[in-house]
Amino acid sequence: INVQPATPSVPTVGTRTQPTCSTATGSVVLSGLPASGTINQTGTVITSYTITGTTMTISGLAAGTYNFSASNGSCSSSATGNVVINAVVINTWNGIAWDNGTPIASHSLIFNGNYPPSPDPNLDITGCSCTVNTGRNVTIKTGRNLVITSTVTISGTGTLTFENTSSLVQTNNAAINSGNIIYQRTSASALTSDYTYWSSPVASQNLSISPSYASGMFYSYNDFAI
């Protein structure tokens, strides 16, 4: 008597992880898989994976739509419903408005126009990454924040200026910024022995002080100095 293996169940689609500005591809967790065999992927990219466990994470998925079936070598299951991996939303400031509405934490922000407009919207700006195109001047006004998860890139002759008490807030400690970023800070009057602490160290920064403060001096602390 020949006993045929049972037809595998349709894989159960679990957690989907969508791409971000710091991770270009998404993933999906599939469970209810046979102990061995193959996962067949169809849709935007067609490929297959050797089953290594009854639950697997399929990663490296570019934006698109995917379906998955399981094969035990003799029989194949039906395919899952559509698994949609979304592209990162690029939200561009054109000098007047954002082309994808108010920025949110998952948006990759591009400034292709000067900011702020008139009248000033008086808002913090939140995004996943931020690029200021060459020739564009972006100013974060006093008391407001630019909150970015990943990198900030200022291209060419573009500038990003933070007025007094405004801040760049980045939640990814490994983020690397580049380009012309300017911080403006105003210190209260100080006695001879007083000082004002302005920031943690920034690589390759240039410091300048108002000519009206003729006796001004800068002090820096280098923990790695010999």
Description:
By secondary structure, the protein is an all-beta fold. It starts with 11 loop residues before the first strand and ends in a 43-residue tail after the last strand. The protein contains no helices and 17 strands. The mean pLDDT is 89. A hairpin with a 3-residue loop joins strand 3 and strand 4. It is elongated, with a radius of gyration of 26 Å. It has a four-stranded antiparallel beta sheet, with no helix packed on it.
Write the layout of secondary structure elements.
Elements: E1 12-17, E2 26-31, E3 38-43, E4 47-50, E5 56-61, E6 64-71, E7 83-85, E8 90-93, E9 108-111, E10 125-127, E11 129-132, E12 137-140, E13 145-148, E14 152-154, E15 159-162, E16 167-170, E17 181-183
Parallel strand pairs: 8-9, 9-11, 10-13, 11-14, 12-15, 13-16, 15-17
Antiparallel strand pairs: 1-2, 2-5, 3-4, 3-6, 6-7
Features:
single chain, 226 residues, mainly beta, four-stranded antiparallel sheet, four-stranded parallel sheet, 34% strand
